[in-house]
């Protein structure tokens, strides 16, 4: 996956987040539905940003960024801010 592919995925996830919020505001989905999907989107976004950071680090140290792999949600969500 290239950086551009990752950014495209991020854009799609953010668009879905906005759509969910609009549907919730319009009463088309419940609080629970919105909350569950937003949590899943947050995890996917965190994985995308982590993958971009891995790719950048590999590039910086002369390694092939294409060897970076998305980490499991349990790993990415365990990072401290």
What features would you describe in this structure?
With 81 residues, this protein is mainly alpha-helical. The chain has one domain. 70% of the residues lie in helices and 0% in strands. The protein has three helices and no strands. The protein has helices at residues 3-25, 31-60, 73-76. The radius of gyration is 15 Å and the shape is elongated. The model has no long low-confidence stretch (mean pLDDT 94). InterPro entries: Uncharacterised_Rv0898c (IPR020311). Residues 59-81 are annotated as: Disordered.
Secondary-structure blueprint:
Blueprint: H1 3-25, H2 31-60, H3 73-76
Helix pairs in contact: 1-2
Question: Could you give a quick summary of the protein structure above?
Answer:
This protein is 70% helix and 0% strand. The protein is mainly alpha-helical and 81 residues long.
Strand count, sense and closure of the main sheet? none
Q: What is the end-to-end distance?
A: 26 Å
Structural class: mainly alpha
Secondary-structure element order, as H and E?
HHH
Mean pLDDT: 94
Low-confidence stretches: none
Number of domains: 1
What is the 3D shape? Answer: elongated
Q: What's the number of extended β-strand segments?
A: 0
Number of helices: 3
Which descriptors apply to this entry?
single chain; 81 residues; mainly alpha; elongated; DUF2630 family protein; Uncharacterised_Rv0898c
């Amino acid at each position: 996956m290239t950086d551009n592919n990752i950014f495209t995925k991020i854009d799609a996830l953010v668009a879905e987040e906005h759509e969910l919020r609009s549907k919730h505001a319009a009463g088309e989905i419940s609080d629970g539905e919105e909350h569950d999907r937003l949590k899943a989107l947050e995890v996917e976004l965190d994985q995308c940003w982590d993958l971009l950071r891995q790719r950048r680090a590999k590039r910086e140290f002369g390694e092939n960024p294409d060897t970076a792999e998305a980490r499991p949600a349990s790993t990415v969500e365990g990072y401290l801010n």
